[in-house]
Amino acid sequence: MLTKIENVWVLNPRAPLSLTQSQSHAVDVFYGCVIIKDDTIIYAGKPEGWNDGEGLAGGAQERQFDTIVDGKGKVLIPGLINCHTHVPMVMLRGLADDLELHNWLEQAVFPIEDRMTPEDVYWASKVGIAEMIRGGTTCFSEMYFHMDAVAQAVEETGIRAVLTRGFASSGGDGGAAKLADGLDFALRQRNGAGGRITTMLGPHAPYTC
Asked: Count of CB atoms within 10 A of residue 137's CB?
C-alpha cells in the first residue's frame, strides 16, 4: 500500500525543536509531500526528489500510488506524545470536580476504581485513545491497573504506548505483591502489539511507596 500526501506544509521531525536554540536552528518547515509505504514513512521532501527505486521520480507517475491525499491548507507534524496519562479515568470525567485533590481521590475516585473491572478499563481506554488519536497524539505513557485491558486497547487501535502497572505500598502490606504483578506485566507485554508497546515498572509516588 503506497500513499502520498501532497500539497502540504511539513514540519521536519529531524530539525531541532528547542525554543532556546538560535534563530539559525529554527524548526525546518517546507512545502512538499510525504510518501508512506504500508505503515512506514519512506520519504518527506520536495515532490521532485521522490524516486520509487524504479526510475519513477517526482509526480509524473501518479498511478504508482494506491491513495493520494490532498493536504492543501494543512500542516503535517510529527505525532504528539502524551507523557503522563491515566487513560481509563476518562470515564470519571466531571466527577466531583469541585473537591481538592486528596479529597477528590479518596472520596470520589478511589471508591469507584475499587469496583472497576477489566472490561471497564478496556472500554474506557478505547474512548481515551480515540480522543488522543483525533487530537494528533500517536504515543502515550500510561500507569493504571488492569493493564492487560489497556494493552488490548492499544493493540486494537494502532497507537503506540509505554505501559506500566502502577503500584503503591502505603495503606497496607501488599507492596511486594503489587511489585511482582507489575514486573510480570512488564515482562509479558514488552514489545507487544508488533513492537508498539514498551513497558516499565511504575511506583506511584514517593508519598505512597
From this structure: 17
